[in-house]
Amino acid sequence: MLNNIGIPGLLLIAVVVLVLFGRGKVSGLMGEVGKGITAFKKGVNDGTKEIEDEAAKVDEEASETVEKDKV
């Protein structure tokens, strides 16, 4: 259904949105979308770092256990 929307269709949709909501609301909305994307990326990076830290901790504990078993 959306495969047939080309550049002219997108431009028409953009013009209609601008006419209905005005430039101020659209630019404010885009600013909020940008902030949301930035927060999402930060959350993903923090989650990845947390998982890597936990994996390193588990590896360290496992190696300590192996060292104790050897002695």
TrEMBL record:
Organism domain of life: Bacteria
Keywords associated with the record: Cell membrane, Membrane, Protein transport, Translocation, Transmembrane, Transmembrane helix, Transport
GO molecular function: protein transmembrane transporter activity
Compartments it resides in: Cell membrane
Gene3D superfamilies the record matches: 1.20.5.3310
Pfam family, one: TatA_B_E
Keyword ATP-binding: no
Membrane topology field: Single-pass membrane protein
Biological process terms in GO annotation: protein transport by the Tat complex
Segments crossing the lipid bilayer: 6-22
GO cellular component annotations of the record: TAT protein transport complex
UniProt keyword Cell wall biogenesis/degradation, yes or no: no
Signal peptide segment: none
Subunit structure, as described in the record: The Tat system comprises two distinct complexes: a TatABC complex, containing multiple copies of TatA, TatB and TatC subunits, and a separate TatA complex, containing only TatA subunits. Substrates initially bind to the TatABC complex, which probably triggers association of the separate TatA complex to form the active translocon.
Function as written in the Swiss-Prot or TrEMBL entry: Part of the twin-arginine translocation (Tat) system that transports large folded proteins containing a characteristic twin-arginine motif in their signal peptide across membranes. TatA could form the protein-conducting channel of the Tat system.
Family, as annotated: Belongs to the TatA/E family.
PANTHER family found in the cross-reference section: SEC-INDEPENDENT PROTEIN TRANSLOCASE PROTEIN TATA
Protein's recorded name: Sec-independent protein translocase protein TatA
Species for this entry: Pacificibacter maritimus
